[in-house]
Amino acid sequence: MCGIVGYVGKQNAVAIILEGLKRLEYRGYDSAGICVQKGRKLNLIKKAGRVDNLSKEVAKHRMVGTTGIGHTRWATHGGVTDANAHPHVSSDGKFALIHNGVIENYAQMKAFLLKKGYKFKSETDTEVLCNLIAYHYAKENSRTKGQSRFVECVRKTLRHVEGTYGIAVLCVDFPSEIVGARKASPLILGVGEDEYILASDASALVSRTQNVVYLKDGEIAHLTPKNFFISTLDQADVSPVVDKINWSVADAELGDYAHFMEKEIFEQPAALENAMRGRFSADGSTAQFGGLNITPGEFRDLERFMFCACGTAWHACLVTEHLIERFARIPVEVDYASEFRYRNSPLDPRTLFFVMSQSGETIDTLAALREAKRKGYRVMAVNNVVGSSIAREADGGIYQHVGPEVGVASTKAFTSQLLIGAMIALYVARMRDMSFSDGVQYVEALKAAPALTRRALAQAPKIKAIAKRYAKYQDMLFLGRLSLFPLALEGALKLKEISYIHAEGYPAAEMKHGPIALVSESCPSVFFAPKSEIFNKIVSSMQEIKARKGPIIAITTEGTELPEGLADETIFIPECHEAVLPIVAAIPVQLLSYYIAVERGCDVDKPRNLAKSVTVE
Ligand code: F6R
């Protein structure tokens, strides 16, 4: 949440920062701002609304400089106004600051600063931080350990801060320098040729460099035109490790698609190939993972798995639960990360803990990971963004390798999480009761997932036509059973988040215990009704909806015949192995939600009130 960019170099900082903000806009899009330093002058422009709004405003002014910071906001403290937009400037005019995170003790600090005569123009916690830096700067006169006074006053301030932050700061007395720091909010440093870029994530800097330093919590980066230095809050110097980003700027561009969500839906066959590449054993009977850091023997001795995640990733955990219990016969518990972190639930000592997170920065998932580690459990992460906080703090993990996911509504990250969940189930099952030949069959089924997904995607024109007919409704139910119950939850989430249609996901048979009261001509139901041993039970549930005049969109497997006249619309997906079914079944609900949202004229990639990567509680 919130995107931050800082640039120090020889080029025009304005263009680079605005481009970076455009790429970071998916992190928050309430308002945006930029501050460029020219000598001892800070030139600030900030506006409520999108980055395009800001760019238009910037174009009206002569804004030049080779050092600057920019921000795109997802509001936490204070409404969406020009005044609350970042950067904030201290009341003495010496500092400009951008911030991602929440300063929890800002009220006490504000009261203190007000007494000292500091003035505030906004309602934000960020402005308090900026003024506190100014306060320490005014007090601090000496240079400590060769670090500049600029760095020292930021360090001192951050020692008083409770909460989370990724920040970048300018100071009028240090032209061409930026100080950045992070705690539980992501911040990476791009190391370019004669230039350094600080950013919330790689998409803002990958067009200029692929060399990056992933800053850790409690680290402070000091950028100058010729070098950069990293130290800790405790003043220890840090030797930076420069990593390489393994994707290019083209991966984060729209190409011929209208929206990132559409692009990412259609990228899924390739994304699944990437997620499974090199992850099957040479004998083709099981999965293998390079980064688990746990021996097969330790894995075999486990008694239980616990999975924690949020949102769509939580749905992927529910499917994984089903597959592990079904094929490996080990009990699995799934919890919302936000609940687990406060619930203090008793865990069996032989439990292996997993978190799933596309971004690797979701604060609740990160907190759940930390809580599990605090209790002495080993924690594995299924995660897409390399070098993320979760990837770094986990004891081992599995990268999704699906490239940047820009659309706020998760699609390709979800199906790759389903795939990895299915591979974990296979890995454990083969250590227990699954036979060699069943393992080989399972592996072959997973290898077919990209091609089957492609076949499901071929239904897009038909689904688009259905979407046109159903875009007018205000309520929808999504119903499925067993491994497709989480897909019903996911279908409902996808639809509501991008089209603002009220939607609920339920196990199909559970619908009788309450939600059926909603059923009428004006509340359609999307049914997952694939061929299975409980097909007839699902058909009975559909009859109950039909008897109450509820329109039905059925998603069923090719070759399956539904009773005449039962479904108003039928979407076919290819028949496939149980482990692959949820992946293939995800495609029609993703497409349906996408086309309905487009039909309703919604801003698909930037749904209201949402942001990708939820880094605040
Ligand atoms: C919905 C969606 C969110 C995320 C959730 C967790 O389409 O994208 O529900 O799944 O915010 O995000 P990550 O996976 O980054 O932890």
Q: How does this model look, in words?
A:
This protein is of the alpha/beta class and 617 residues long. It folds into 3 domains: 3-248, Aminohydrolase, N-terminal nucleophile (Ntn) domain (Glutamine Phosphoribosylpyrophosphate, subunit 1, domain 1); 254-447, Rossmann fold (3-Layer(aba) Sandwich), CATH 3.40.50.10490; 458-607, 3-Layer(aba) Sandwich (Rossmann fold), CATH 3.40.50.10490. The chain contains 19 helices and 25 strands. It has an 8-stranded antiparallel sheet, covered by helices on one side. The chain is globular and about 80 Å long. The structure holds fructose -6-phosphate.
Question: What is shown here, in short?
Answer:
This protein has 617 residues and is α/β, with parallel strands linked by helices.
Distance between the termini: 11 Å
Q: List all distinct small molecules, including ions and cofactors, that are bound in this structure.
A: fructose -6-phosphate
Helical element count? Answer: 19
Low-confidence stretches: none
Averaging pLDDT over every residue, what do you get?
94
> What is the name of the CATH class of the largest domain?
Alpha Beta
* Fraction of residues in H or I helices: 25-40%
Number of strands: 25
Shape: globular
Structurally, the number of domains stands at 3
Strand coverage percent: 15-25%
